[in-house]
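new request in #modeling-help
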Amino acid sequence: MSREYSRQLAQIALGKHKAQLVFKNAQVIQVFTNEILTADIAVQDGIIIGVGRYQGEAEIDLSGKYVCPGFIDAHLHLESTLVNPGELILQAGLTGTTTFIVDPHEAANVAGTAGIDYILSETEDTEANVYVMIPSCVPSGPNEDNGHHLTIAEMRQYLEHPRVLGLGEVMDCQAVLDGEDQMLEKLRLFGSKKLDGHAGYLGEKETGCYALSGIQTDHECCTYEDALREMRTGMQILIREGTGAKNLEGILTGIIDNQIPCHQLAFCTDDKHIEDIREQGHISYNVRRAIELGMPPIEAIKIATLYPAKCYGLKHLGAIAPGYQADLLVFSDMEEIKVEAVYYKGKRLDPTKHRHRNIPAELRDTVHIKWKGREELRLFLQGTESPVIELVPGQILTRNIRERVNVQQGEFIADQVYQKLVVLERHHGTGKKEMGIVKGFFLQNGAIASTVAHDSHNLIAVGDNDEDMCRAIEALIKCGGGYVVVESGKEPLILPLEIMGLISTWDYEQVSKMTRQMLVVAHKMGVPADVDPFITLSFLSLPVIPQVRLTTRGLYDVMKGNFII
Amino acid sequence: MSREYSRQLAQIALGKHKAQLVFKNAQVIQVFTNEILTADIAVQDGIIIGVGRYQGEAEIDLSGKYVCPGFIDAHLHLESTLVNPGELILQAGLTGTTTFIVDPHEAANVAGTAGIDYILSETEDTEANVYVMIPSCVPSGPNEDNGHHLTIAEMRQYLEHPRVLGLGEVMDCQAVLDGEDQMLEKLRLFGSKKLDGHAGYLGEKETGCYALSGIQTDHECCTYEDALREMRTGMQILIREGTGAKNLEGILTGIIDNQIPCHQLAFCTDDKHIEDIREQGHISYNVRRAIELGMPPIEAIKIATLYPAKCYGLKHLGAIAPGYQADLLVFSDMEEIKVEAVYYKGKRLDPTKHRHRNIPAELRDTVHIKWKGREELRLFLQGTESPVIELVPGQILTRNIRERVNVQQGEFIADQVYQKLVVLERHHGTGKKEMGIVKGFFLQNGAIASTVAHDSHNLIAVGDNDEDMCRAIEALIKCGGGYVVVESGKEPLILPLEIMGLISTWDYEQVSKMTRQMLVVAHKMGVPADVDPFITLSFLSLPVIPQVRLTTRGLYDVMKGNFII
């Protein structure tokens, strides 16, 4: 900033020159003092210059309206919503989230630094503040066949990036407690920045040990007790309310009842589908829910603004005061917080604005499978008893059971109860392939497949016959990844996710329309009404969630920490 | 920290190895959750490793005792108390202050970088955390003859010092509002660090403009209204309760009554005499006073611990949690907070420990006056009317008056009402000298002189006869600066302040004894009982406090901003 420009801003602040833009007569939510002040907000070049009585070249009258700082999502994955980052940011932005602290964990698992660079470049000039935490655990474990092993040397490249705030969710808690060399090196490397955690379930001493390593936040707490145990160590609790995980009520009820101060809290969504964002709101929904539970409205707003800004060292965000960025939300009711207008750097968000959908060449062609055809899907068993993955209704947990299944001439034949599951390594064409049997999907006369399968994002398919499964797999190989639903005898429904096999180039409306259509067909084919087959599939290969998972290396017993022979 | 050592700490945190030291069964003040938890505190190498149930090689039972984090003084001047920094830190430390954020403003005015280096080196291995803010306004104004003009190049040298947190109190508010080049450069230079303010009295727009410059704290607020106006800009209010300025009740009464949140507050003393520290406590007194006024005790403790630690980015201080430094205070009563034991890095403070009193050679001989003798003190007037500096009882303010005084053959003769005041440039032997007439001192048959005179610290003397004034001045020239009281016909009382003319090498007990003795004599000679002649003298040359001051360049009208011809 030139000195001349500094002096010009000072003149505006002193009221000697007009500001470019003044919001007049607003009810300003004052996060530093918990007041609501009737005042004008003077803005120059996207920065708040003064709060008081001001005149502007342009003026917007906000008489009778409340204004608060833009909301902050303290932890989310932009690439988990099928749509381009710009799509998600715009839709969430329109509901009041102006700052996104993202962990490009999925992108890194598929494409390494190219995936991280994609998230950075796609968010470079979005109408939002987007910060990045560098993924800490890629791959998520030693037995994973993912697209890229993110090395410490690669992580180091991002240390000086102005939008990189620190290290992404440290999921490998045991490595922290054991003080494994690689983990200690990552923690040291990002030690002067922010270290995000992922440890809601640890015991008291383990939680303390985890915090001692320097990890300062966690978004995995599900209950008040989890949150309290971690808050006592000084960790910031990022209260998550997304599409899948909903932890807000469980945590905030206890916080409110026990009058625990809120300065160690923040809000996040982790993963929230765009349809849910449009229906409920994004961080605005967390704020509204908190108020419904009895949180004083200004305190709920501070959990969405000032506290995360302070936690992540974002000195220019989270408040309406001189020098802060003019990210402002306008609403009429302190209980509902129904956001009527969103200003980012003093400019109103435009829902019709051109949305990015760049596809870097190296992220386009990421599905590489050594595929010989339908014969590959035959599953031969020793005897008629077999290990089975049983879905637990309403949860992403599974049960590790062993049951008698339909076997003909040594070959497993799917039926109404037991279907076939296959995972194919899809990054490097290694030909790695494992099959298993799943109970609880109830899929009849068809197959469903996806290249979104946490965290390694291999190709996963389920079906009750090899022909449809083969069609599904081949469709995904052909389109470069995506979702597919095959109903016997009919044309497959395909949602291409050309970008890393994770993200579509379509508008969210098209994505939404196709996924709805797919769900209708899947449920028609027998998938229980409360099961989203794609979400279920996406977790069936993640070997950190109890009790049993199928990966490219076999059936994994999560409880015992080994493969089932 | 080596990986092996990290693993060792983790093992202790997990309870698998004993810690060096465990405080058992304490009532731990939990600043993150506002709880009081019965727990053990495990300490290794001065760091808290765990809070819960632990066993130690050594154990200290604290059953029935409360433990809170060591207190932080967010702003003070170590060199304003006549004693060596180590003396002050020890005495304040014993009352519970374990962290000192100091501004070596006086030292810099006398000796520039040598003065700053002295404060840094004297505090290098004290049993306290001492951080330094680099003085921003040395000299304090363009018309000052101080010892050293601290250049931006010199300030830059301290940017990377691990104990330098930022820029010291920016007193020249007008330069900030006007955007003067030098000031903008200083603000830019320290812009990524903390910028301390000094602006309690500005109007609303001026306060906003001042905050816009990036200044983030202020310790000059006297009233709740001052504090609130600045808090709204996001500034942290360092509530001052020292020997001279007592702002705590004025500010906190309003904060409590209006339920303003406290996270934008901190405590400081600015200047507090060692006798007052020993009688009342230091920051512990601020905490106790806050509780007396109705502040919940844990919140009062947080204003002295967590909030200033967060404000100044001291991540390892201000809480009792894993990874935090084991600076701990033990007490028995949540209302009184009478500190019974102080642990710094897990070691109990030892009141008998050797105290530093190094005297760097370049700080020893700082009084250089071109002095020709008593003849220099003759004051000739045009007529019998003269400008007079009138003291305002009980305040450091003065009145600018013009009165008829005793003149014989054109020469002013002091009497019971009007005494002579002289200021001599004492740094560079320039011979600059100015005289004036003061009313309200009531000094008879003697003289008092000092080399402590804010901010330039020239030699200032007052007396009713030239002979005693001459003896006083010559005594200070001879001893290298200090305080002196001369009673006609008696041996002068001298407190040598050999270090920069500001600091004694004596123990505080000796200093205390001598200053008490001097006060007795001064009051016997007519100085009103409620006037400390040294404090009064020390401000009579500071041309920023209304209405009139005498400097080495003449009688200065503070209200008009010019010299009185």
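bot summary: The CA atoms of residues 177 and 206 of chain B lie 7 Å apart.
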